[in-house]
């Protein structure tokens, strides 16, 4: 078992406009990236469950082999900067993804 927060080089979140958040996970180790990708642990369903949103609120999930990473774009609860927004830059929203337990098969 491994957690993205332990094996990724970069794990971050940021706004993707005022109504969406983007989560980026980048590796500096091809083996860890490939093992995570093959695990099928990173799916729209898993992200929805992790972030307690509907699956249709996971707008995009893309693996970029050339960059050894993946990107997830999800709908924000409230628009950036509006009343009730707790993170105007979306910079603290990667935390749930950090601790996702992933079963990595041997390379």
The number of helices is 4
- H/E element string? HEEHHEEH
Shape: elongated
**How many structural domains can be distinguished in the coordinates?**
1
In the CATH scheme, what's the topology name? Answer: Alpha-Beta Plaits
* Proper CATH architecture: 2-Layer Sandwich
Low-confidence runs of at least 5 consecutive residues: none
Query: Strand sequence of the main sheet, in spatial order?
Result: 1-2-4-3
Q: Which structural category do the helix and sheet elements fall into?
A: alpha+beta
End-to-end separation in angstroms reads 13 Å
DSSP strand tally = 4
> What does the main sheet amount to?
4 strands, antiparallel
Kindly report the average pLDDT value.
94
Summarize the structure.
The chain has about 110 residues and is of the alpha+beta class.
List key phrases describing it.
4 helices, four-stranded antiparallel β-sheet, Alpha-Beta Plaits, alpha+beta, 107 residues, 4 strands, elongated, single chain
């Amino acid at each position: 078992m491994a957690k993205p927060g332990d094996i990724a080089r970069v794990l971050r979140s940021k706004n993707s406009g005022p109504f969406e958040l983007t989560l980026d996970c980048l590796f500096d180790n091809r083996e860890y990236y490939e093992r995570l990708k093959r695990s099928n642990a990173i799916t729209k369903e898993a992200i929805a469950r992790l972030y307690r949103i509907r699956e249709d609120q996971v707008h995009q999930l893309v693996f970029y082999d050339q960059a050894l990473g993946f990107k997830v774009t999800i709908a924000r609860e409230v628009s950036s900067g509006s009343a009730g927004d707790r993170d105007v830059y979306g910079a603290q929203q990667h935390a749930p993804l950090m601790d996702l337990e992933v079963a990595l098969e041997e390379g």
